């Protein structure tokens, strides 16, 4: 496949390959996606806004230049921003392919980092010399202000021009939660949503902290996806239940939505509203219990996103799809073309979940877990400019008219 190099969310020539439950492969213009939906279907997208999570600064003990890429926290609560897991690189920037980036200086617990106006210290290493738990100084408002003012979107070498934050925010972006854009939702705009609703399709959202897609290190990449917090509103659980009652499909826009929904389903098969932490790795062995189809970007074999697709279709179908993508010059990465899979009946699937706890593992220490408080707009009002606030909060009133 060809890397998509231009940061355009909805290019007019975007392509879509669709695979039905029988494994039949068909090509469409991506703008035709709403025509693949049926009355009674429920489409669920990730409304997370992308955090400017790339922070350049200084490793104080050595004076070395570093880049810190925030990679996770255990809560979506805006006040819970003192502790982040992060990937640390040495000198350089996104123009160097991630796998060729310099390593950071030796990182030790207690090391101080100066990141623009922010100050942070290394709490501990997370089983890798490049992956650390950071503790930021200051109030939540000061931390958010420093991230928003000093941070840049995480970016990779296939896009040559610097990304702006609005390149990474979807049309439905809400709470600042994602570390890279939930780019499957780039397909959505208000006209697309209006067309879906007119066709009798229901629309809902989850908020899921979409994580880093590449660390530049094969051992770390093998541990992706990292643990990611999510929030599922009661309105979305009602939509899913309604789809089940009327025989409609539950369609996830993006792999993060699949993770959130499949993590939140109980042993009784009922989707639970509220907040949680997605710890499972979805793969060929996973038995999907909520999601019937997924709309996603094109992904390279071996990545965690690609492995998730094995829960929907057989290996043979995936191999056939790869050939089709190559033959039709599909573009990959966040601004690339798209795929739409209906779930096939796959034998041998089960629930595959990985757990993590403690500072010596991928996730943050359990004492930093979310305490369940409700999302507070007041914190973001103090931290963001009027344009960003308008983007964040304008979705609420329109969305309330879409969901019964």
Kindly describe this structure.
This protein is an alpha/beta fold. It has a domain at 2-50 and 161-342: QueA-like (3-Layer(aba) Sandwich), CATH 3.40.1780. 23% of the residues lie in helices and 24% in strands. The strands form 4 sheets. It has a 9-stranded mixed β-sheet with strand order 3-2-19-17-15-4-13-14-16. Strands 6-7-8-11-10-9 form a 6-stranded antiparallel barrel. A hairpin with a 4-residue loop joins β6 (54-59) and β7. The longest helix has 17 residues, at 386-402. It is globular.
Portion of residues in beta strands equals 15-25%
User: Biggest sheet, in brief?
Assistant: 9 strands, mixed
**Radius of gyration (Å):** 20 Å
CATH architecture of the domain at 2-50 and 161-342: 3-Layer(aba) Sandwich
> What's the overall geometry?
globular
């Amino acid at each position: 496949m060809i890397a998509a190099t231009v940061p355009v969310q909805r290019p007019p020539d975007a392509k879509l390959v669709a695979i039905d439950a029988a494994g039949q492969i068909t090509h469409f213009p991506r703008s035709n996606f709403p025509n693949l939906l049926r009355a009674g279907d429920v489409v669920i997208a990730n409304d997370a806004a992308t955090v400017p999570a790339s922070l350049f600064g200084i490793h104080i003990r050595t004076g070395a230049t570093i880049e810190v890429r925030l990679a996770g926290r255990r809560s979506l609560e805006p006040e819970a921003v003192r502790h982040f897991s992060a990937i640390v690189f040495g000198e350089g920037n996104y123009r160097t392919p991630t796998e060729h980036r310099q390593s950071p200086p030796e990182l030790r617990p207690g090391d101080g980092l100066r990141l623009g106006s922010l100050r942070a210290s290394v709490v501990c290493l997370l089983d890798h010399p490049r992956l650390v738990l950071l503790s930021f100084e200051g109030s939540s408002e000061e931390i958010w202000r420093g991230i928003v003012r000093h941070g840049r979107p995480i970016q990779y070498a296939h896009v040559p021009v610097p990304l702006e934050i609005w390149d990474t925010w979807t049309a439905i972006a809400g709470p600042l939660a994602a570390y890279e854009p939930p780019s499957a939702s780039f397909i959505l705009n208000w006209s697309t949503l209006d067309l879906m609703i007119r066709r009798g399709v229901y629309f809902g959202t989850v908020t899921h902290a979409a994580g880093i897609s590449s660390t530049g290190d094969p051992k770390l990449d093998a541990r992706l996806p990292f643990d990611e917090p999510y929030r599922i509103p009661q309105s979305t659980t009602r939509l899913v239940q309604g789809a089940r009652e009327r025989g409609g499909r539950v369609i996830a826009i993006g792999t993060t939505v699949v993770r959130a929904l499949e993590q939140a389903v109980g042993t009784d098969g009922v989707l639970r509203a509220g907040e949680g932490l997605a710890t499972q790795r979805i793969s060929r062995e996973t038995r999907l219990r909520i999601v019937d189809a997924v709309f996603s970007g094109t992904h390279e074999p071996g990545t965690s996103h690609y492995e998730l697709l094995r829960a929907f279709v057989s290996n043979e179908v995936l191999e056939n799809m790869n050939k089709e993508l190559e033959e039709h010059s599909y573009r990959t990465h966040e601004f690339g073309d798209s795929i739409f899979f209906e779930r096939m009946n796959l034998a041998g699937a089960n629930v595959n979940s990985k757990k993590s706890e403690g500072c010596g593992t991928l996730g943050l220490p359990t004492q930093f877990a979310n305490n369940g408080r409700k999302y507070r707009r007041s914190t973001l009002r103090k931290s963001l400019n009027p344009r960003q606030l308008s983007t964040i909060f304008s979705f609420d009133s329109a969305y309330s008219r879409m969901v019964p």
